[in-house]
Amino acid sequence: MPANFTEQRIKKIFKIAESNVKEKIDLILLKNGTEPHLDLSFFYITGLEAGLFEGCALASYPDGETRVYTSKLEEQSALKGKDRFQVITFKDRDHLAKMLKKDLARSSNGFSIGINSNELTHKNFEDLKKLYPKAKFVDVSSAIVMARMVKDDQEIAAIKQAAQIASKAFPKLLDFLKDGITEYKVSAFLNATMQDLGAQGPSFDTIVAFGENSAEPHYSPRDVKLRKGYFALFDYGAKFRRYCSDITRTVVYGKASKQQREIYQIVREANQLGIDASRVGVKAGEIHQKVSRFIDTTKYKGRFIHSTGHTVGLAVHDGAVIHPAFKGTIEENMVFTIEPGIYIPGLGGVRIEDDIVIRKNKAEVLTTAPKELIEV
Ligand SMILES: [Mn+2]
Q1: If you measure from the C-alpha of residue 27 to the centroid of ligand 1, how many angstroms do you get, rounded to a whole number?
Q2: How far is the CA of 97 from the centre of ligand 1 (A)?
Q3: What superfamily does domain 5-149 belong to in CATH?
Q4: What pTM does this model have?
């Protein structure tokens, strides 16, 4: 890991921010709330792997200088990065406010502070306005999203490992399935298996959906039992060094019906189409259109009800979607999912999701679990 990557990442954010807003930004200030209102950009900039940093702040300057304001509780975690940034410890909220006021108000003539409006809570913003009445606040959230979207080598290595852990858990999961086992038990098994394989934990709440429940894309496991002839859908991911993977596989428990086989093959083909369409220079919307138009040429027209994918990183939904709603162009070293599905209420659904990293000439698939139809 390059020793100065905090400086590199900060400079990258400033460069994009200043070209977006066309004005000078004196500093970028991140302020965390309490869990779950934590800005993961805090970890992007610091590279810290441990800690929550509730209530903590981070200030970065255009030359790459960064100060992390931490409570005593997180001090030991923060000190792990002290070669890349300064660590300043506060006693309580008032102490932090005093230090922020003194350290950052460099110019009495007013100065501009970049904030991440995607993550800063309204309360924290109101507090900052009181602290710096003369400052001009500039929203740099889209620059942060863009900077985080194109990954560097150490980020890709972490996601790759997270994807490997999730992929390795899949065959173990198949061995665990049996008549009458519940969605709860299988999701607990998956989480434990990923940790056993080296994950910090699951990257989001594991989805295990049997039978007709597989028609709900954001389903939560319940005490539903596995029965012969059911689709069984598993959407899960591992977190490794804070980076997420996100995979979905669907199998048939028992012998697949003709219709189940047909739905599966269409989704399988749509998944490959999406991967093949993911290249440097294409618009995210074009990838989605290729996938959704293909599904709409089949008798399952209209049954693909979400975007084709989303970027993955520190957050499992890391800022952009693979859909016309995101106007951006695909660049080298972006990491995102391709996850078409077909959902039929009352019957069930199939989704096949992979994580891919965009390389110079093609997409590299990071999730290596098998994708042919499996009848368990
Ligand atoms: Mn996903």
Answers
A1: 34
A2: 39
A3: Creatinase/prolidase N-terminal domain (3.40.350.10)
A4: 0.94
